[in-house]
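Let us practice reading a record.
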Amino acid sequence: MIEDQIKLKTGEAIKNLYGKTIDISQIQLEKTNREHKGDFTLIVFPLLRFSKKSPQETATEIGNFLQENMDEIVSYEVIKGFLNLTLNDKYWIDFFLSHLNEENFGFKSTKEKVPFVVEYSSPNTNKPLHLGHIRNNLLGYSISEILKANGKNVVKINLVNDRGIHICKSMLAWINWGNGETPESSGLKGDHLIGKYYVLFDKKHKKEIKDLVHRGYTEDDAFSNAPLMKEAQELLQKWENADEDTLTIWRLMNDWAYDGFNETYKRLGVDFDKTNYESSTYLQGRDLVEEGLENNVFYRMDDGSVWVDLKNEKLDEKLLLRSDGTSVYMTQDIGTAHRRYEEYHPEKLVYVVGNEQIYHFDVLKKIIQKMGGDWFDIIYHLSYGMVELPQGRMKSREGKVVDADDLMDEMFETAKKTTEELGKTETFTKEELTHLYNIVGLGALKYYILRVDPKKNMLFNPEESIDFNGNTGPFIQYTYARIQSIFRKAEKGPEEFLSELDKNKIELLDAERDLIKLIYEFPQTVENAGESLSPALIANYCFELVKSYNSYYQDTPILKRVDPEIANFRLVLSWLVSKIIKNSMGLLGIEVPERM
């Protein structure tokens, strides 16, 4: 990269001008702010200890040295302690031409062997996927694709929460009031049917709590002493004791949930390399807890429950086994983490889980460390903020959620309405229109969610997400389709224009230079997104590229009224922009249509 060459030459300048040697990593170089002339800016202030001169004088001397010793630097400008360097057009043209035939420009071709494990989705089999799950799935999938583009050997894992008290609540409600209802008899997706009974349990349970409170119980005592909750706890114990009747119902209802989840995943465009089930990992976790108990890492209370003391680590005390011997989430996560380490010996174990679980993962890492797991520091919790709606937070137990399937239906209809209002689909077949509405609707949904930094809470607005004139997925998709339409009008493919291109006759407009500079930033953006595990960097880069291209397209003739040599270059430039748009959106899991 040219930045590395500039830093090396700056080191030479300091050696030649001031007789000092500097560690190249200490040289600060960044992209020049738009309000100033230049491509890269050298921060001069840290170098004054070598020059013993003013910022202005130091910057001027280094600027002169760089211009004299680097053919790429055509001019420089000093503003206080900042040295703004401008590269010549030849450098940008050569860079542009050298990457035209790279199908995956910006992606690393070498692949590492050590796995990079990413867990995401992690649904509970007592309810369908909702808007919060959508953010989880989109983040997990996009992060995995970005890591692959950075040469990582990614293993995508879905850990299904298929056991526990919440599952037993849905089971109990179905046993008591289901009358044998099935997805087939009800016409509901399996996960929706189970969610219906989870909500029903909550309603019945709340009624019992209210009755007990009227009889003098506290809210907390009423919650745990309500007959339904006791029945659910008994059902959980039967499950852990492998009661066959209980397991039969559990398998039946979980299969309904899996069928429903898979249908939603397919439509959402996410997938996994492997699916784990908590029902097969919690026993290993329980064994590890018992082992830790024997080694005095944990302790048993008088009621038989098992705990870990993390007060010295400012994490308080944590329950690991209930008094009745049943497991908690932490128990199974201990087992799951150990199993993954033993299976993969990964570079990282990334958990894509909401920020309400920050404490949970801090505890998990500390427990594994206490148990002698020197690999505890490979665990990384990618915490993300809540997705909120104008009416407030979602509550699954009360049925106050934005269902993932319903939301995708709504996005399809919104895409259909918005696209039809633009009136440019007369030549599409019915099948092509259905495909287009799906692409645009899902593109709007995915981009709107992924453009936000994962750590931030966000407000989702479906109508705003599908605007064709803002920082949205459809705006980017439309730009890609617009570029493809240019080649259809030209009736020649990009490769033909490339073969006719004479690099010696290329003269860059300011807008063209700006576009090439943005193209130059793509590989570093992909790398930064991989290091920070943030798809938002890709999304916002893509928007900046598209915004810059659209401005160029509006002000500059591409195909008509220009010399053929100029047209060749502008078409090839448009082609490379479109490839980067497609690759960028692909990293976000978003498809781009060839026409809109």
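A brief commentary: Residues 35 and 147 are 34 Å apart (CA to CA).
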